[in-house]
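User: Predict the full complex structure for these chains.
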Amino acid sequence: MNNFNFYNPVSIIFGKNTIAELSKHLPQDAKILFLYGGGSIKRNGVYEQVAKALKGFDYIEFSGIEPNPSYETMMEAYEIAKREGITFLLPVGGGSVIDGTKFLAAALCLPEGVEPWGILQGTVEVKQAMPLGCVLTLPATGSEMNGNSVVSRKSTHEKLSFGSPFVMPKFSILDPEVCFSLPDRQIANGIVDAFVHVMEQYLTIPNNTPLQDLWAEGVLRVLIDSAPVVMNEHQNYDAMANFMWSATMALNGIISRGAIEDWSTHVIGHELTALYGIDHARTLAMVLPGNMNVRRTVKGDKILQYGERIWGISKGSKDERIDATIAKTVEFFESLGVPTRLSAYDLKKDTCEKVAQRLAARGVVHFGEAGDITPEVVEKILANRL
Amino acid sequence: MNNFNFYNPVSIIFGKNTIAELSKHLPQDAKILFLYGGGSIKRNGVYEQVAKALKGFDYIEFSGIEPNPSYETMMEAYEIAKREGITFLLPVGGGSVIDGTKFLAAALCLPEGVEPWGILQGTVEVKQAMPLGCVLTLPATGSEMNGNSVVSRKSTHEKLSFGSPFVMPKFSILDPEVCFSLPDRQIANGIVDAFVHVMEQYLTIPNNTPLQDLWAEGVLRVLIDSAPVVMNEHQNYDAMANFMWSATMALNGIISRGAIEDWSTHVIGHELTALYGIDHARTLAMVLPGNMNVRRTVKGDKILQYGERIWGISKGSKDERIDATIAKTVEFFESLGVPTRLSAYDLKKDTCEKVAQRLAARGVVHFGEAGDITPEVVEKILANRL
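Assistant: Here is the predicted structure of the two-chain assembly.
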């Protein structure tokens, strides 16, 4: 087990009718910016619940944060927040709204004259941020309980991330009932996203972390078991609650402490979103099986453990078991209606080269848990999923 | 799953040589009280490491905090802390030193004239506390990552507890190497203590918490697997690290969110410690099997799940499986040299009555996860372990 730090001060408020508690968690004297996305919260009643809880508070709204939140949109929010003297940020939505708000929170506290895009390029250090508190409406990214953020720049087709403890939410409200009205596609994406978050932290190289392994496997098990129920019965509270809590636990840092992490599926997937606008989770569903296949030497021991403990695969040669485990993983994603091949998006061999070249151009040339992913390996991983 | 809150802002620093990082986490201008127990830290090198890290800080020492920290001792520390203008508390030790310090932290911030014992009696509300940061030397209680504290009053033979988010440590440093020199008895006690902490939160009534169940079972599994290794090879870093991390995860709140908790084994066990001075963990090892046996109706479903998933017991009638599961639990505790019967301490039938009467006298007459434990049931539970 590697040495590690763990610090996660996010206050979670979980359960039925918890949005009504929002006012208890907001600073009384704050000037609040209530941020949301495309308006689905107006159709499912969440907007009303939040507005009711905000009665008596001084707040303004900012809507229109898109999936894969853009730098351009968040800089509009930045101007408004500066002009209006905002002191607290309240994102209400899924990972995109929360991620965009985290970037905004950090940008608002930069010294005068520093270009906020540097936060994402890694050239500007985040030393403080405006406080934020979330109302989560879509279980998927885990953004509600971590300090990570991914933001895209439309003008350059770049999708970059940053992380800082300063942008961890002060609180996050998780009411599984607000997910009842989610479209199938978003639920399926959320399940895949959370699943792959676990895999990035778990399906790497054994490092004497038995508890972390069992906890990661626990999240995978609950996601797999909840998946058919939440897909078929959106209003099943028990299944939705378990899915929602698992998605949060998938990426709050606890399952990876002392373990070796990968994140290469995300690095490659982000390029597919940046280039073709494919849903984040759907890029992961394509890349992960290719990653497992091509990098079966690096990941072999953990693939066998995952295959046996999660899918009951214990017979056959090592390669046969790895093949069967990848097949089961693909089958799970496909059972949710999530494609696992590039052909589903009419993408061909040139995409594999293009993605490898884009990463190489940014200097991303030796990544993954063993530093073994060169541009050539990126091409192979994607070519495996044509 | 019940609605729940989760908030745990303790910063964990885990791994080899991490005590050297202590100075980074202490407030520069603090007047520090460095608290410890009976002096074992002077024999195992921890005292030296801490003193070295404290170089340049303004601090004084307070030693002599006993196992089952006493109100009387902590009030001595209270007088010193008041007199010396202490602003930060640094407990270095196991759960007793940390628990005692938490009480002190809360006591030091009470309004003038309020009797600190009220904190433990539940008549005084904790609204603030002096900040504390820990160096843990004994994996067991989980006190390093929660807001719980148990303190005994020698003069009245009372052992009472309180909990408050205000007494959660600002940080806790966990270096598994400092455990290498622990005596067998303390390691065995620590394993049993952590194990029973999980059971109090897990072995209750099913409540649609599959992830929490799997995580609880994960902690039990790692404790069981680490136990023979740490008992036989105190210097096995990997096993000690896994034991240490599991003991912390056993009681930081995460495995019980939304679940139904019990804690009756602790309530009964505390009386045995208060009356006869038996080690805390050793009281739990006696009470838990009796609790499982006598309350097999309330706990039946979860005992079967635990028996099957942890001990592989899946054959026989319900009662046969429950009996076999209790036998396995007893065998595990005994394998660590921890007795599971009152006779090991020469305690007889009158003890069962006495404990029931003491609890009844304090109004503790309907407790446990189903409120089903009356004084009569307390007697039965203990009589089952004569």
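Chain B has two domains: 11-178, 183-383.
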